[in-house]
Design goal:
alpha/beta; 5-stranded mixed sheet
Length: 396
């Protein structure tokens, strides 16, 4: 879409302020440019050349966490998130404050296996991700780089009695940081009778690149993934990361004119299939609360299914007071640590007040963030709960 089309889209805004009602960054900084309405005004000024790029303008446009809450609230359905992405693309050449972050993210995504090996070597040198986070002044993520990724070649897992075939979009975080979650998903799918394909050639969904204004590089990722997954004869393309599903299902049509319509969050795919299965009791866990990942709840509109799945396992679900973003936001936490940590504390306090023994979520990024703020509570991906309820651990 050309800049003129974005100007027309932004002109639809009547400045009603509905978009600010649940904006996480506006809640932390009650100034107009830190909410969606203010950012739209700034973007329109930029695109009509009434405003010139500046360090302050850059920070206001890049401070959006891209949760998508505002679009759900906008009565005129202004494409706020897409306008933010376009603004970042326009600003990226002049945005010197994030140039090293762009270089780091681009290097990691273009050379994922090399980046993984470097991270693993740093682990052996005693530089944990938690220590690196402390050095960089970001959220102190506490995770150990695993010994092997989930996927590094074309892999096919076949059940004893096949009823269907699905593909798994692993995503960077599952492949390199949480391969055990991928193994849990494979185990559940095999138990249900699905052949599982992890195709060779998958690359990053492109969301981190796009969030930093690197639209051209994100387009190349989208084209590659569409080529790889569209040729598979699969009933569904599943991912444990809502951001990946959002990208390949809804954002790719805007980037390259075509998406992957059979891309699905695991909750939507599993709900009708798990409820017909005999389930085993969950050991050592009686009460849990659920954290809604922003991209799952807002752009994808999935809120009921994960809760129904939790209830099917027999564990008591205790809802926390209020709703909100955990403050992760991909590279957001690397840029705006104070806001990220404040959002995290609010959610952590809300979940602790429930008295639940564990927090369940369905996003690896939320898991990273919440684990750093909930030291005495388990933070689990919903697939871990489902695996224990449905089947024996997968030996990959």
């Amino acid at each position: 879409m050309q800049t003129s089309a974005y100007i027309t889209e932004l002109s639809k805004c009547v400045r009603c302020g509905s978009c600010k009602a649940f904006c996480p960054t506006y809640d932390e900084d009650l100034t107009e440019p830190m909410g969606a309405r203010g950012r739209l005004t700034l973007l329109r000024g930029l695109m009509t050349r009434q405003l010139k790029p500046s360090a302050l303008l850059n920070d206001r446009i890049f401070s959006c966490i891209l949760c998508g809450t505002c679009e759900n609230l906008c009565p005129l359905q202004v494409g706020i998130t897409e306008a933010i992405y376009h603004g970042r693309r326009l600003l990226s050449p002049s945005d010197r404050g994030r140039r090293y972050l762009r270089m780091l993210v681009n290097f990691s995504i273009q050379r994922p296996m090399l980046s993984y090996r470097i991270a693993r070597a740093m682990r052996y040198m005693g530089l944990s991700l938690q220590r690196i986070s402390a050095i960089l002044g970001t959220t102190p993520f506490n995770i150990t780089i695993p010994d092997a990724p989930l996927r590094n070649e074309h892999q096919v897992y076949r059940p004893e009695r096949k009823i269907g075939r699905v593909a798994v979009f692993t995503g960077c975080s599952i492949n390199f940081l949480f391969p055990h979650l991928g193994a849990s998903l494979i185990n559940v799918l095999l138990h249900l009778g699905y052949e599982v394909v992890l195709p060779m050639g998958e690359v990053c969904c492109g969301a981190p690149l796009r969030s930093l204004g690197l639209e051209g590089k994100a387009i190349k990722m989208a084209e590659r993934n569409h080529e790889v997954f569209s040729r598979l004869n699969a009933e569904a393309i599943l991912s444990l990361c809502p951001t990946c599903i959002l990208s390949i299902k809804l954002h790719y049509p805007r980037l390259i004119g075509k998406g992957l319509d059979n891309a699905m969050d695991i909750s939507s795919f599993l709900i009708d299939r798990i409820e017909t299965q005999p389930l085993y009791p969950i050991h050592g866990l009686k009460t849990v609360t659920f954290h809604d990942p922003c991209h799952l709840k807002y752009p994808l509109g999935i809120e009921r299914e994960p809760r129904d799945l939790i209830r099917l396992t027999g564990v008591e679900l205790v809802e926390a007071e209020g709703k909100g973003c955990c403050g992760f936001g991909g590279v957001f936490g690397l840029q705006f640590r104070d806001i990220s940590m404040s959002l995290l504390k609010k959610r952590a306090d809300a979940y602790l007040s429930t008295g639940a023994e564990a927090v369940i979520t369905s996003c690896p990024g939320c898991m990273l963030q919440l684990s750093s703020g909930l030291k005495d509570r388990q933070v689990l991906h919903i697939i871990e709960l489902l695996e224990e309820a449905a089947c024996q651990p997968f030996k990959g």
